């Protein structure tokens, strides 16, 4: 089945707001076995909305719209949809109760603009919003189902996953599918493709493979649509085992795993704790680790030692070490890692120091040169990397690499 995603908002067209909704919905629809054939952003005008609907209704099995459902005068989507689908706006008592509860819980009184949110088209099925005031609306016309949802990303995501998908499954026959995401790190895309050349050639005809690169690693997506669900998934699991034999430690997780989630699991499983000493990453490693719920079980603290003075005074790095070898050096990160171990009394420490760029490089230490040390009570190992010239990418790669190194060290200790 095919699908289209429409995002409504002048702020998107003007570049003021990044359209994360379309990205999220495209991924979700693909996982649900829809073929997303078109994604478009349009302005908050009746002309734009109607023209787009004329080109879409009857052509796509499913049309998802986000945005344009606010209480202000520039949000006209609801009225346009009511007219287009031959309905009229009426006040819905359940939605009004939701809006009143939402507003009063925040210490405000219901006003006319808030009350306007309870107006919904008579031609739609109302899908109530658990997090906001604008409900979602489900329409049907010319063999197309259309769902209009609020544009606030966290509202849209929850209402789509918890309310819209179950509703669509009642009225649409979703095709069978199986998708498996394999997360890799520490191997460039070209080298990964080369290593998997024979693997790809031997894939069964009904399986497809895609590479999804990012600074946090390369995702390998194995997927198949149509056929018996269990057989599809069993077939993909067979291929995943082959990938594990080929790639070994370059695979760090599957599905919704991230480096920080996997590292958290490894630390918790071993009842271990970690600390950080960061220079060029500015605390990103610590931020990643604490983004996982329950991180107090394994993360004790960190030092953002951006200046040499902090490296010396807080972490105990010798002044002579920095004078003789520089802040970006094996010797310095080893002493930073030792300082974090001493300061926080942890089982492991991560230390990072590098030339993030775009300036500050030299002949010996070009932009992107980064030293990372992984410390434990038994030993400290340091590794050098040369990432590239883009500051933002270098910082993300350094943080990801540091976590991947510790994951592999912990797994090696267990084996």
Question: Treating each run of at least 4 consecutive H or I residues as one helix, how many helices?
Answer: 16
| CATH class label of the largest domain | Alpha Beta
Low-confidence stretches: none
Strand order of the largest sheet: 2-1-3-8-7-6
What can you tell me about this protein's structure?
- The chain is α/β, with parallel strands linked by helices and 415 residues long.
- The protein has 3 domains: 2-171, 3-Layer(aba) Sandwich (Molybdenum Cofactor Biosythetic Enzyme, Chain A); 177-254, Alpha-Beta Plaits (2-Layer Sandwich), CATH 3.30.70.2860; 259-414, CinA-like (Maf protein, Alpha-Beta Complex), CATH 3.90.950.20.
- It has 16 helices and 17 strands.
- It has helices at 10-13, 20-31, 46-56, 77-84, 93-105, 112-116, 153-171, 189-195, 197-201, 229-247, 259-269, 284-290, 308-313, 319-325, 330-344, 391-414; strands at 2-8, 35-42, 62-66, 89-91, 119-121, 125-127, 136-141, 144-149, 177-184, 208-214, 217-225, 251-254, 274-278, 299-304, 348-354, 369-376, 380-386.
- A 6-stranded mixed sheet has the order 2-1-3-8-7-6, sandwiched between helices.
- Helix 11 packs parallel to helix 16.
Any descriptors?
415 residues; alpha/beta; Molybdenum Cofactor Biosythetic Enzyme, Chain A; 6-stranded mixed sheet; 5-stranded mixed sheet; 42% helix; globular
Gist?
It contains 16 helices and 17 strands.
Describe how the helices and strands are arranged:
Layout: E1 2-8, H1 10-13, H2 20-31, E2 35-42, H3 46-56, E3 62-66, H4 77-84, E4 89-91, H5 93-105, H6 112-116, E5 119-121, E6 125-127, E7 136-141, E8 144-149, H7 153-171, E9 177-184, H8 189-195, H9 197-201, E10 208-214, E11 217-225, H10 229-247, E12 251-254, H11 259-269, E13 274-278, H12 284-290, E14 299-304, H13 308-313, H14 319-325, H15 330-344, E15 348-354, E16 369-376, E17 380-386, H16 391-414
